[in-house]
Design goal:
Rossmann fold; 6 helices; five-stranded parallel sheet; two-stranded antiparallel sheet
């Protein structure tokens, strides 16, 4: 049975178009027998904002404050969750040409030297290997393969840095460019999701 971690990151609640697509994917894959874990980074599972104290604590050490110990334990939980699943599905709506801060915060909690990546004499090496990632990205405009898309290239870079290089992308574009464009973009995205196997 495939184990799937789904990361939602929209802050729009019931108005979220990425959540509609993610829920469609989850239903589709549950019907295929996948075991799904959902972490709603923009809703009930919002993470604390990483500041200097937390960032320092994530490096470990013997003299951590109580807050640093708590945040390190949270990071360990998130990393264990990442490593325990076969496929990572990331909802990545485009906000002002990039990812939501809530998703960036998750990345800052899991991208840890010596834990999910390491540096070697020949360069960095990812420690989270053998995983598959699916990016579901929604945008108001049309940005695919263009210079204004800072979502997909960034996420592929971060995931690859941690060792996840098998990345598939589902695009829902032009969602704010009129009703016809919206329906076309969502329809094409749902069709792409229906072709994915868990």
């Amino acid at each position: 049975m495939s184990k799937v971690l789904i990361l939602k990151s929209s802050i729009l609640g019931g108005y979220s178009q990425s959540a509609v697509l993610i829920d469609h994917l989850a239903s589709h894959w549950e019907n295929q027998g996948a075991a799904i874990t959902v972490r709603d980074l923009g809703g009930k599972d919002v993470l604390p904002m990483v500041d200097g104290e937390i960032a320092s604590g994530l490096r470990g050490g013997a003299e951590l404050s109580a807050r640093q110990q708590e945040m390190l334990a949270l990071s360990d939980t998130l990393v264990a969750e990442l490593k325990a699943n076969d496929t990572i599905v990331i909802a990545a709506p485009m906000y002002n040409f990039t990812i939501p801060v809530q998703l960036k915060n998750w990345i800052d909690f899991v991208a840890r030297a010596g834990v999910t990546f390491t540096y070697t004499e020949t360069g960095p090496k990812g420690l989270v290997e053998g995983k598959r990632a699916v990016l579901v990205t929604t945008r108001g405009g049309a940005h695919k393969d263009g210079p204004t898309d800072h979502v997909v290239p960034y996420l592929k870079t971060v995931l690859g840095f941690m060792g996840i290089t098998n990345v598939e992308v589902v695009y829902a574009e032009a969602l704010n460019m009129g009703p016809e464009a919206h329906d076309k973009g969502m329809g094409e995205a749902k069709h792409s999701i229906d072709q994915l196997k868990a």
